[in-house]
Amino acid sequence: MARPKKCRRICREPSYDGFIPKGISTGETVELTFDEYEVLRLVDLEKKTHEQCAMQMGVARTTITEMVEAARYKVTDCLVNGKSLCINGGNYQLCDGSIRRYCGQGCCRGEQREIPKITEKGAYEMRIAVTYENGNIFQHFGHTEYFKVYDAEGTEIKNSQVIPTLGNGHGALAGFLAENQVNVLICGGIGGGAKNALASVGIRLYGGVSGSADEAVAALLAGTLGYNPDVRCSHHDHEHGQGDQSCGDHKCGSHDCH
């Protein structure tokens, strides 16, 4: 028996229910569902990653990839072949307000609810958190919107999951990580106050690291991770550019300091 499709969560139904080509039309109509409309709005208009979109809509990242491809094909078919577009139906449910804190649109309805904590660590030896964005290590600890959390035993990663920070920042993130049983943090730049907060809850810090989050964790477990024990992020004193990974007088991840 086939497993039933999981409902896709959307913030709101579209304001326009269709588009008709100007000029010569084939008379054919393509139907774009509400959930396909939503995935285009989030990925193409708001520039969210597939991972962020998956969290917001309550489905797997692979599902988002499939939906994006299908929706883009339908829209392109209308543009190229002069077909009408009808937006209607689909397998969806309207957001009840439970994702307001990382939706950020002000469009979610109902009262805000607390998002459940991540799964218990269980018997695994180590839980590693990485500041996370688009598969890479996000370079400013206090501004990270997501952590990728890995449970490891010996040199083997047993499981991983991406979690939102729920609007916490700087010192509050240390408590958030401790509450979720994190033992180790890998990040780029980090301020002195946050370093002290992490130390106070017993979380080991590997700062000044850049590049792939998965590769950094694998290197940590293998004992080959290059990091900077004296990393400092002075973004309170000046603003970094979007691609700038320099923190204080150090270049994040630019040398191996074991």
Topology readout:
Elements lengths: L7 E3 L7 E2 L9 E4 L1 H12 L4 H8 L3 H21 L2 E4 L4 E3 L5 H4 L22 E8 L2 E2 L8 E8 L2 E9 L6 H9 L4 E3 L5 H9 L3 E3 L6 H10 L23 E2 L2 E2 L7
Parallel strand pairs: 1-5, 3-4, 6-10, 10-11
Antiparallel strand pairs: 2-4, 6-7, 6-8, 8-9, 12-13
Helix pairs in contact: 1-3, 2-3, 5-6
Give a verbal description of the structure.
- It is a single chain.
- The chain is of the alpha/beta class and 258 residues long.
- The protein is built from 7 helices and 13 strands.
- The protein has helices spanning 34-45, 50-57, 61-81, 100-103, 171-179, 192-200, 213-222; strands at residues 8-10, 18-19, 29-32, 84-87, 92-94, 126-133, 136-137, 146-153, 156-164, 184-186, 204-206, 246-247, 250-251.
- Strands 6, 7, 8, 9, 10 and 11 form a 6-stranded mixed beta sheet that branches. A 3-stranded mixed beta sheet has the order 2-4-3.
- Helix 5 (171-179) runs parallel beside helix 6.
- The longest helix is centred in the N-terminal third of the chain and has 21 residues, at 61-81.
- It is elongated, with a radius of gyration of 22 Å.
What proportion of the residues is helical, as a percent range?
A: 25-40%
The chain-level structural class is alpha/beta
Helix tally equals 7
The ordered H/E elements are EEEHHHEEHEEEEHEHEHEE
What does the overall shape look like? elongated
Head-to-tail CA distance between termini: 54 Å
User: Unreliable segments (pLDDT under 50, ≥5 consecutive)?
Assistant: 98-102, 104-116, 235-258
Q: What's the overall average pLDDT, rounded?
A: 78
Number of strands: 13
Q: How can the largest sheet be summarized?
A: 6 strands, mixed
